[in-house]
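I hope you will forgive my troubling you with a question about protein structure. The matter concerns a single protein, recorded as an amino acid sequence and a row of backbone structure tokens. Please examine both parts with care and let me know of anything in them that strikes you as inconsistent. Here, with my thanks, is the record as I have it:
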Amino acid sequence: MLQFRFHGRGGQGTVVATILLAKAFFKAGYYVQSFPLFGVERRGAPVEAYLRIDREKIWIRTNLYNPDHVVVLDKTLFFSTNVTRGLKKGGWILLNSDSFPAANDALSGYNLAIVDATRIALKHGLGTRTHPIVNTAMLGAFSKVHGVPPMDAIVGAIYEEVALRPEANMQAAREAYESVRLFDGPAGAKEVG
């Protein structure tokens, strides 16, 4: 079983991202669980959402405390929230950022992938300039980082589930897939791929 924790802010599509990924993984033959954790339910407030996947039936019904990998939709959360809390060593942190984070100590023992999902969302007119919706771009980057689910499953889930501007969302996912940067090793020591 693989477990993923998503960190975002209200209004960025964090919960929707896990639902879309669950649908894409289901299409690819996986068993899935997707569920959110809300604190203050308002735009801009920190939000966590979770995803479990497995090739066998998932019987566990608890919160997710030790994710294999983490996805961060808002880079400010990297500095204000402990996004590595419980993260297994060697796990991937997929971060929406235009550059490698300065606080490298927090990355020790993890792999890092960065994608400028904010730029991609704005380019495709997703959300507004002050509140870009980055979730579908992050899905494309997720597919590249983890090798699953395949992009055709992600695009299919977006097409079927996203009512507003599905084509722009699919393009954002494809662009992020192509532009994500992977850093392997402790504190993102070297860029790979």
Summary: Helices lie at 14-27, 76-80, 117-123, 135-146, 151-161, 166-179. The chain has a mean pLDDT of 91. The chain has one domain: 2-184. Residues 2-184 form a domain with the Pyruvate-ferredoxin Oxidoreductase; domain 3 fold (CATH 3.40.920.10).
